[in-house]
Write a structure and sequence with these properties.
The protein has one domain. Helix content is 76%, strand content 4%. It has a two-stranded antiparallel sheet. Helix 1 runs parallel beside helix 5 and helix 8 runs antiparallel to helix 9.
Amino acid sequence: LPENESLEHRNFTVDLRFASTYVDYCITDEPFLVECVVKMEDGAASTTILLGDFDDNHEKSVHKADESIRRGFLRKVLGLLAVQLTFTATVDACFFYFPGLSALVRNWEWMFNVGVVVSIILLIAMHAYRRRYPHNFVLMFFWTLSQAYTTGCIVSMYEAPVVMETFFLTACAVVGLFVFTLQSRYAVSIRGSCLFVLLCILLVGNIVQLFLQLASLELILGLAGAALFSLFIVYDLNLLMHKLSAEEYIVATINLYLDILNLFVSLLRIMQQLRSSQ
């Protein structure tokens, strides 16, 4: 493809990916962003959650459990997350080390759209079976594979130095956010409803960018996305430590995985725009 057409196609693919991200968060984080549906029972207010198991008093949360349960829950979530990220990085690396795979992706562009749709369907199924073993792990594997494929389609459109720089920048940012949140003596207060509003604004911006393809707007959306998904990481870590029950390790893992993946793609947009402006 000519350089200008290749650039427009890459930006269009990234914008489409972020538009689908809104659906992902509606399935995963949206019930937490709205945070609660209050109903009246016996004259007293109680709280129910559409997805995820915690109540307003957090009586079932892992935060109230024994030390051994808390540590086991955290090890399980971080272990699954590490496996997901390693698998994703391996799949994405294949797009660089095997040129034929990148050529195949460019020739079969419709496969990216299929991957996005399949990912959403698997995410819905995974929530439905999130507590049923081994269904939850099987669904998580195929969902991670679909996410790795769509991310691989994106990184194959960038130069290797940009991707590597973004990878290390994302790793440093994630480690810093994890250390800050997990070592903090206080629960970090972030309004989930505010994050949801910001996510909606980012969605609108990406839809506009689908048609305008402005370099300045691409940089702005990258900066906004990086800031927003960094907040999502802190928010979801806070949920993990203070609100989720020990049975919700699947929910905690996929939330953090999505946050990190979207932070990576946002930083990728920033790094590419900065390199292009030089």
